[in-house]
User: What shape does this take?
Amino acid sequence: MKERHDPKRREVVAGLAAGLGSLALPRGADAALPAPKDSGIDHVVLLMMENRSFDHMLGWVPGADGVQAGLAFPDRAGVMQQTYPMLTGHASPWQGCGSADPNHGYTAGRQHMQGGWLQTDPTQLGDKLPLGYYRREDVPFWSGVADDWTLCDRYHTAIMAGTWPNRFYMHAGDNDFLDGDGVEKVSKLPTLWDACIAKGVTWRYYFGNLPFIGLWRRPDYMLFSRPLEAFFADCAAGNLPAITYVDPIFESGAPNALSNDDHPHSDVRAGQVLMNRIYDAIRNGPLWGKTLFIINYDEWGGFFDHVTPPIVKPSTEDAKLGNDGRLGFRVPCALIGPRVRRRYVHHGLLHPNSILNFLSWRFGLPKIGSRSAISGNLAEALDFTSRPNLSSRGYLVKSATYGLDCERYSSEPQINPPGPGPTIPTFAPSLGKVSRLVFGSGEEARSNHVAQMRGLYEVSKAMGFPVGPVVFP
Assistant: This one.
């Protein structure tokens, strides 16, 4: 039975979320859920993509709280600039070549909350990539998901900061890294995977080119790690563990790399192919009847979104870094499987700790991270009252080799004039507060990203992970 979105319910839930404000408390409804062993979910597959906001990618979804056309924000010269469709308003609509990697650091996010999406443009030359958006017809995989499955329009990232802090939250429910921290720092956080090992819950980590869990420098984690292509063979053979985590091929900033993580300047069409390929592998595999597939993104990537993120209690380690507890902007999040409501938009407040709470509930794990007590359970977005619906359909997502990552990511001399760079706010770990550092002609978001990915490569290779292929500029 198809279940459609109830607009009245959306108003009630949205009002409730607004009223809760900074509390972000769970509804305490675990008692209303079935016994975990009776949930009908024995396998969970989680795919985390990169750097896109909800409005930017999914603001067109019927019944969702999305806005795309008609918004305007001032650029650094004070001129109001309109949001626009990527395919008609950008010379490189699928990758954003010719534009900077939008700033999405700790300080930049707080400027964005005030409508300053273009105020963090490092080029000072009117780069409008952060205001572009994709329409339904541009993203065929997301179009199919919107028609068939559950999308969550109040899924926020864990921290209003960049990739690394948010990915630490997904693995550990906590964070001890800042945007600019390099790989010389080793995370000491206990993870979901430690809980699985202690409880005997099976798990496996598949990665495209760079294994993020290498940052823990744990040789035992390598025993549970495999290259991405092995996922498809394991899925077809019915050889998936209880919890599967998948990372895409990360964009490395090189001109001759081919990534599919949706990070600018990856080709968005390649991301559609990857998500669709994983979806097809799961739904056509022998474990489909008892599997839940979750797709989320690590952070907003500097792209516009009209919803102000709430504040929750900072995690224990995060508070030591000076984090104020502000969640990040909304990002796409989809729930797919026989226990998922069809053609539905879930409006409850969710973030990575909500997923971890679900995994703890389902597999009898201890709570992960110090935020667990104030975070909801993703299970509340699922349908445990109806019989499992095993039907599924494929989507017409053209599989092809798309554009290589942009050459010198937008011809740097054109968008980053030589000479002293602008003063760009960053989060200073030594001070635990916002500081100001002067950068050169390279722009902050890109240089941080490339440096971190290069460091991850070096650490992982030294540990013995089968990293690659990856090329750096």
Q: What stands out?
A: Residues 168 and 175 are 5 Å apart (CA to CA). The longest strand covers residues 43-49.
